[in-house]
Design a protein that fits this description.
The structure is a single chain. The chain is α/β, with parallel strands linked by helices. It has 3 domains: 2-262, HUPs (Rossmann fold); 282-408, Isoleucyl-tRNA Synthetase, Domain 1; 420-466. The protein contains 15 helices and 16 strands. It has a 5-stranded antiparallel beta sheet. Strands 4-3-10-11 form a 4-stranded parallel beta sheet, sandwiched between helices. The chain is elongated and about 95 Å long. Bound molecules: adenosine monophosphate (AMP) and zinc ion. Residues 27, 214, 239 line the site of zinc ion.
Length: 469
């Protein structure tokens, strides 16, 4: 499997360093609000990556953190008058609901920052001892960027052009990308803004900065050198750059062998973000009648190293595409018995698998992989129109789709129960059709439609389905 490594700026082969288990860390949500679909684009990409790694036969240990302590979580929980852990717990639960709705496979471990403050204090202590960190008069601890010579290697910043140093310290979790600053590892307790959120450290009361959270949790669960670190492109600087600096200064080892970054989801040319107030949550889209599956398909089908421009036309397009797949599957599932003039689908199936896997293993080339799928569907359709697909071939095709869906995760539908009354009308219609009583058959079809279902007839038989909008 080949990936594009953002640090090396080239495609490389992905392999576990120990030859056994690939250790992957993905930056998780800040749980102070519902995720917007820009965030979810990154998580869907990470899911495609996860599934492709597993599909390639590698074993995987995947850790995604929950940022449940930073400026935003504290500020918002205080504004809501709810204890921090309760406040973030509710949004963490909403995040997991979104993942389920989007058929995103769970990571092996979801550590929360507040459960790992001890490990963070340990790292900061070691950075202080090694001279990579210093305390300010107010009790903050800052990382000394000028001492870490490789700073900027991930995001390919030219440090000479940027001002480096303590004169430019930053004590918030987000800051202007143009400003290269000594960043906070620890923030001194501020009784006005921090409420009752603090921990005791050898250098004073306070709480960890955002960046150290990921380093401490990645190292705890995946070791000092991990195989792959992933996130959205906005995380590259300063967040990932800072993660590298703190971790490598602390351990003296390479922090992550590979880096991957997903490009943004944009709306009318601008990054979708909470601060720009141009965002939709998954709930917004579900309440407009779209399904998680449709949203997943939309987010999945643009290559992760391309910006994805979100539009409702795009979402309607995803719906249409899924209907074509569903329709294809329905037809195959309804084929019974042998056909008189059966074709051999095995060559088509192996052509599909070869084309699909070659593309998906090439840095998740999703558009080309999907176009192999649609070529295949077209070809099988035309064989079926010629009456050449019997039950056995249909089952072979369905098994191939199921196999590829381990990667895509878009083919399973929620099963709609067909009400008894509809089933009965359908059976009566089948009898009428056998007797060639077309008038009665049409009447029954209309009755079925009146109940919100449709009958589809094809050479290989009829079936009844829920009527779609
Ligand atoms: P946050 O909850 O802000 O820490 O972001 C969670 C993840 O979503 C990070 O990996 C971000 O890089 C990513 N992200 C934020 N905004 C967007 C966007 N508009 N498109 C894609 N990914 C995004
Ligand atoms: Zn992170």
């Amino acid at each position: 499997m080949i990936i594009y490594d953002t640090k090396l700026e080239k495609k490389v082969e992905l392999r576990p360093q120990d030859g056994r288990i690939l250790r992957m860390y993905t930056c998780g949500p800040t749980v102070y609000n519902f995720a917007h679909i820009g965030n979810l684009r990154t998580y869907v990409f990470e899911d495609l990556l996860r599934r492709t790694i597993l599909f390639s036969g590698m074993k995987l240990l995947h850790v995604m953190n929950l940022t449940d302590i930073d400026d935003k979580t504290i500020r918002s929980s205080m504004a809501a008058g709810v204890p921090l852990k309760v406040f973030t717990g509710e949004f963490a639960e909403a995040f997991f609901e979104d993942l389920r709705e989007l058929n995103i496979q769970p990571a092996e471990i979801y550590p929360a920052a507040t459960d790992h403050v001890e490990e963070m204090i340990g790292m900061i202590d070691s950075l202080l001892n090694k001279g990579y960190a210093y305390t300010s008069e107010e009790g903050n601890v800052f990382f000394r960027i000028s001492k870490f010579k490789e700073y900027g290697a991930l995001s390919h910043l030219c440090l000479d052009d940027l001002k480096v140093g303590a004169s430019n310290r930053v004590n918030v979790d987000e800051y202007d990308k143009e400003n290269l600053s000594d960043f906070a590892l620890w923030k001194a307790y501020d009784p006005v803004n921090d409420g009752n959120v603090f921990w005791e450290a050898p250098w004073g009361r306070g709480r960890p900065g955002w960046h150290i959270e990921c380093s401490a949790m990645a190292i705890k669960y995946l070791g000092e050198t991990i195989d792959l670190h992933v996130g959205g492109i906005d995380n590259m600087f300063p967040h990932h750059e800072n993660e590298i600096a703190q971790s490598e200064a602390c351990t003296g080892k390479c922090f992550s062998r590979h880096w991957m970054h997903a490009y943004h989801l944009i709306v009318e040319g601008k990054k979708m973000s909470k601060s720009l107030k141009n965002f939709f949550t998954l709930r917004d889209l579900l309440s407009k009648g779209y399904t998680g599956r449709e949203v997943r398909y939309l987010l999945l089908s643009t290559h992760y190293r391309t910006q994805l421009n979100f539009t409702f036309e795009g979402l309607d397009g995803a719906r249409q595409t899924l209907r074509r797949i569903d329709d294809f599957i329905d037809r195959l599932e309804n084929i019974r018995g042998k056909s008189e003039n059966e074709c051999d689908v095995t060559a088509l199936v192996s052509e599909l698998k070869k084309g699909f896997t070659e593309e998906i293993f090439d840095d998740l080339n999703i558009s080309a992989a999907i176009s192999h799928l649609f070529d295949f569907i077209r070809k099988v359709h035309s064989e079926n129109d010629l009456g050449k697909i019997g039950e056995k071939q249909a089952q072979t095709v369905l098994a191939a789709l199921k196999e590829l869906d381990q990667v895509l995760g878009v083919m399973e539908r929620e099963q709609v129960a067909i009400p008894k009354e509809v089933n009965q009308l359908f059976e009566e219609r089948e009898v009428a059709r056998k007797k060639k009583d077309w008038a009665l058959s049409d009447k029954l079809r209309l009755q079925i439609e009146g109940l919100g279902f449709v009958v589809e007839d094809s050479r290989s038989g009829s079936c009844v389905k829920k009527k779609l909008d």
